[in-house]
């Protein structure tokens, strides 16, 4: 088989056409040799408002007006099953390991029933309680009780680091099916106005006017809001009910301790619990952590013999945890100070993986990485079980779809020295997230779920960014460059903006000019999508300037296209060349007539032509017309100006054609009626026709000297004297040569033999095969001067007269006058004694 020109075997069949052969795919042959080509950059196409946004992580996102065929229809609402699946995916993951005992909701039944009654009436309620008061657990129970109150069910949202606009968009996507679509603000308000649901928002961080905006935008929704006392209260005229959540009584605290240790408390332990209740004001979280201390105390009381008998549990104990040598020896209870700040003591008795996880959480500002990242971060394949240990001790609490350090734990661990290597831990996390966020198998939604941890790593590393070593890459710049496109594609645009601003600062400190230009471009596109045109213009101009310094042609083109769209939306007129949305714009040059003799010096060498002398000069860019310009042109877009100019030009052309047709209808001298069968080639060079020199005017030469006036054409198309006795006679330049002689043109040469002037009456038409012999009155026939490449006189000149048709070399040149000597006298090139035909 020919490996180049394959036969039927190439299509999976043998040459006889009997049995098909299965060929292995081409990719399988090279899998063992590694990846041959780098993975392609992931792009995403989004519709946001009136724009079609293409997220490009290489050269910068491209934005254009959305075509009508790309615009999605009105989003549909999710069904009950789809809402349940969406809500299940938004819950925090269940920690691995043995199931923890469910603690009952103690002393909250009255509050639970009151909240359900208010929501059933369509009222919005704010549940206010300190951190650790059991507010989240109560909200979950009330949400389950209200699952059938509203047509769109119950929607659970998190208000942690979320603005009113963010919550409206989260509500929209929770109820509607709208992938890769981000409506603008006005359309968003129209869509959420039709939502009827019970919206549960925990960890709310705003109140006042922001809360009024959220509630007014959704009149068919009833909100159940959870906030701490330090959050601003609702406005005075809002219809939000306030419910305050307090602590438990002493009996409730003791009940939590007994359920945590699985036994009845001793008298000493009950007294210790009473002191703790007085100090903690009955917060349930403090009793959960105190129960973990008692449980660890019971584990420490285990004898060494039990450990030897069940050696499989030996690895579960930390290396530095002391084991009592004598069975049944009593361990002292923690002091009241240790019970008030139990985090360091609890952490010291956990596994090494759990303590390493706490160090990462402290470095990331309290954000606990997802349990799937812990094995790679900690370096232990079983490190995902550390999340279960932390949750069982009450050191972490759920926030949205993730976990954070519980209230007060971050400050306690920092005081215990867990923040000493925070920068090194953040650097390790940033390197891991840079690799993970750029992996092809990771979806933008998964990256958005880890947005807070990624942004926390950037917040630690960006202020300390330095130029990297040769051949290396700045870690914070790489992380921002990798995560920002994922945030944009995942529609988490608040995180997208924060990542871009961190990337700008990191690239500036690290000296990465190309990355800095990319971040400025993305900020300009983001501002354009939000309608902030002034901000978009400033960011895009900064990006174009940086990329111009780097000769980044593709990036500059993307920036110019976005800047042209900004100008179109703002009604400004940019310079045509600077705003072209195409390839690189070359230097603009154009031809213009040379200035008369005696003018200024020429900036560029002259370009000679048979009809006129031109020079090439740079075109002067016009200043951009701003708003309020003359006749309102500053408010017109570039495309509108092009359309208006085309219309004016078309009107002028049509008017000229109609005018010429009307004026030449009954004219006896109509040139169309006076064309001979074989017209002379010299016709129209000086009569103002198409072939005439535009620089010549009737009665005056280009240099200001009077010239002869051509007469009307004869019947054969030649130029003769006019029969009208009142017609003015043509004047001859005083300094010209005698009648019948003429210079040899701009290049010089031997003058031609003079001929006799023609008679005053028109000549008869010549035969079709003979050339025209008519000449103007007082004119002469000349021979074209042979010139060399430089315009110097030819070495050989033919003195024989030539046909008049060969003398139409155009009007005289306006180059400086040079007097040449000839047998007939001195002649100045560039001036003629008669009309040049």
Explain what you see.
Among the domains are: 108-246, P-loop containing nucleotide triphosphate hydrolases (Rossmann fold, 3-Layer(aba) Sandwich); 683-709 and 828-837, no CATH class. Helices cover 36% and strands 9% of the residues. It is built from 26 helices and 19 strands. The protein has a five-stranded parallel sheet, with helices on both faces. The chain has a four-stranded mixed sheet with strand order 3-2-1-8. A three-stranded antiparallel sheet has the order 12-14-13. Strand 1 and strand 2 (51-55) form a beta hairpin. Helix 8 runs parallel beside helix 10 and helix 21 (475-489) packs antiparallel against helix 22 (493-510). The chain is globular, with a radius of gyration of 45 Å. The two termini are 76 Å apart. Residues 1-37, 319-328, 576-637 and 675-837 have low confidence and may be disordered.
Short description:
The protein is built from 26 helices and 19 strands.
Compile the SSE list and pairings.
Layout: H1 26-30, E1 44-48, E2 51-55, E3 62-65, E4 76-77, H2 80-90, H3 109-120, E5 124-128, H4 135-145, E6 154-158, H5 164-175, E7 176-177, E8 181-182, H6 185-192, E9 198-202, H7 209-217, E10 222-227, E11 240-244, H8 250-261, H9 267-280, H10 284-300, H11 304-309, H12 336-340, H13 343-348, H14 352-363, E12 367-368, H15 374-379, H16 386-392, E13 396-399, E14 402-405, H17 409-415, H18 422-437, H19 444-449, H20 451-461, H21 475-489, H22 493-510, H23 513-529, H24 533-549, H25 553-570, E15 589-593, E16 606-607, E17 614-618, H26 638-663, E18 820-822, E19 825-827
Parallel strand pairs: 1-8, 5-10, 5-11, 6-9, 9-10
Antiparallel strand pairs: 1-2, 2-3, 4-7, 12-14, 13-14, 15-17, 16-17, 18-19
